[in-house]
Design brief:
The chain is of the alpha/beta class. Among the domains are: 152 residues, no CATH class; 181 residues, Glycogen Phosphorylase B (Rossmann fold). It is built from 20 helices and 16 strands. β8 and β9 form a beta hairpin. α13 packs across α16 and α14 crosses α18.
């Protein structure tokens, strides 16, 4: 089985390892350090599954042209997140969307010994470790088998890797609708041994162990290559370039990379991510259309506020409100903890949950345990969210992760003092520092409560012009979109 020159042509993708029903195959390092399969003849039953999933032997089956027209270029709008990422910062929002849907993400991380390995996880902390480039061949392990099991269980899965790894994922796990394959633009990857030898040489020169590497560090020279940074166990950072220079010149690739069938616009990925540095200079359309709201519906209305508060029995109450799914992403349990601290200082306070979700029963139990059943309202799914925002005094949503979080825009449109998690909710969600407060991810419930209680909620203003100035009024965005169609299509229907 696998009867070809493995040292020159094997991609080391791990498809055969994951497909073998007898665990007769494992990846080992060849002389040059590349991962290649080693077959245990005593376990092998010659079923041929390794040959059937081999992406080298079946390259004609998986060799697919990516469309040359009708493609879209995108990048992360949050400048802070984009600067800490590579490939336009697009991996994280894609991964967060899958997590939001109860799915899993498979990507490359640095292990404790600074080896590149793929893992499967549904934890945000692990997904954040997958961000940024790892310019070395990764060990896929048994990730494809794990992904296959998750897909069969109906879970959405996002896999991110090189084109050959994406192809191998499809070869083993199939191509169901709940699998999203995200490929990196790849010219080739150095072998793990090259990285290991380089790292050992640098550690000897530094006199300390390398504990962190950022191949696409934006400091101090922005997005330019080939500089990167390494950090050591004594807290010292060094700017380097030799490893990436070798990669850019094609000196450290694996043998199979030099004749890869999946480079360029070939491969099995659903989405391709890579650098579009300065691409905006060549793009046809240089406009951003925000995910806008019907701003007029949310304008602060003191008459409507009193009507809704009377209907809900909230007159004379200090109302803390939140709108969103009762799910892991929105962190509703922490919202209860924050309110518990607020309620201790203001007994007349009320917490309103607008929305439903899989954590509702748990949140209700938590409220009961704290003896706050009379102070917490679960309003469920509502069609009158603009009116309910009028009734609130503050809006609090301590999300674990967000794309933009359009509900933060809606809350500010209603003139509400709004509280969100820093480094999670993008800066673009802040309409005004007078309205919007970021709390660190590490902030305690008490610290959130103190910030909320210290806020002036007596003076509330009409923020319509502010929302329009920030381009979040849907009427304005419709006009902008219409103009773009007319300008770029010359008003012609095709």
């Amino acid at each position: 089985m696998l009867d070809f020159d493995l040292r020159d042509f094997c991609y080391g993708c791990g498809a055969c390892v994951n497909a073998c029903p007898r665990t007769a195959i494992r990846l080992v390092q060849a002389e040059d350090g590349s991962y290649i399969p080693e077959i245990d003849g005593g376990k092998c039953i010659r079923c041929g599954k390794c040959d059937r999933v081999c992406i080298y032997l079946n390259s004609s089956k998986y060799h697919t042209q990516i469309a040359q027209e009708g493609c879209y270029a995108a990048y992360q709008l949050d400048t802070g997140k984009r600067e800490k990422s590579a490939s336009g910062g697009m991996f994280l929002p894609l991964a967060m969307e899958v997590l939001k849907r109860g799915g899993y993400v498979c990507g490359c991380v640095w292990s404790e010994d600074m080896t590149a390995v793929h893992i499967v996880s549904n934890q945000l902390a692990d997904v954040e470790r997958m961000c940024n480039s790892k310019y070395v061949q990764s060990d896929i392990g048994h990730c494809f088998t794990e992904i296959q099991g998750l897909l069969k269980a109906g879970k959405p899965v996002l896999f991110c890797g090189t084109p050959c790894q994406c192809t191998a994922c499809e070869a083993v796990a199939g191509n169901p609708d709940n699998l999203i394959k995200v490929s990196l633009i790849c010219e080739g990857t150095p072998t793990p041994k090259v990285w290991q030898k380089y790292r050992e040489a640098k550690e000897k020169a530094y006199g300390s162990k390398i504990t962190e590497v950022n191949f696409r560090c934006k400091e101090p020279i922005g997005w330019s290559l080939p500089y990167y940074t390494v950090k050591t166990d004594v807290g010292i950072s060094y700017h380097e370039n030799s490893f990436v220079l070798g990669l850019l010149q094609g000196l450290t690739y694996r043998n199979s990379c030099y004749h890869c069938a999946y480079k360029g616009n070939n491969g099995c990925a659903d989405i391709v991510i890579g650098d579009l540095w300065k691409a905006e200079d060549r793009l046809l359309i240089k406009s951003i259309l925000n995910n806008a709201i019907e701003a007029n519906k949310y304008v602060y209305n003191p008459v409507k506020r009193q009507e809704v508060r009377k209907t809900l029995g909230l007159s004379g109450k200090f109302v803390v409100g939140t709108v969103g799914r009762l799910s892991f992403q929105k962190n509703p349990q922490f919202n209860v903890e924050i309110f518990d601290e607020i309620h201790a200082h203001r007994p007349e306070s009320v917490l309103i949950f607008v929305g439903q979700g899989e954590l509702e029963d748990e949140v209700r139990r938590m409220v009961k345990e704290k003896g706050m059943e009379q102070n917490v309202m679960f309003l469920g799914l509502r069609t009158d969210v603009p009116d309910l925002l009028q009734a609130m005094d503050v809006f609090v949503l301590p999300s674990r992760f967000e794309g933009l979080g359009i509900v933060y825009i809606e809350a500010q449109a209603a003139g509400l003092k709004t509280f969100a998690t820093a480094e999670v909710v993008p800066q673009e969600a802040c309409m005004s520092e007078k309205l919007f407060t970021y709390l660190p991810r590490t902030a305690t419930a008490q610290q959130w409560a103190e910030a909320i209680l210290a806020t002036d909620t007596e003076h509330r203003e009409n923020t319509l012009e502010l929302i329009r100035a920030k381009d979040y009024d849907i009427d304005q965005e419709i006009d902008k979109l219409r103009s773009l169609y007319l300008e770029n299509g010359r008003g012609q229907c095709r």
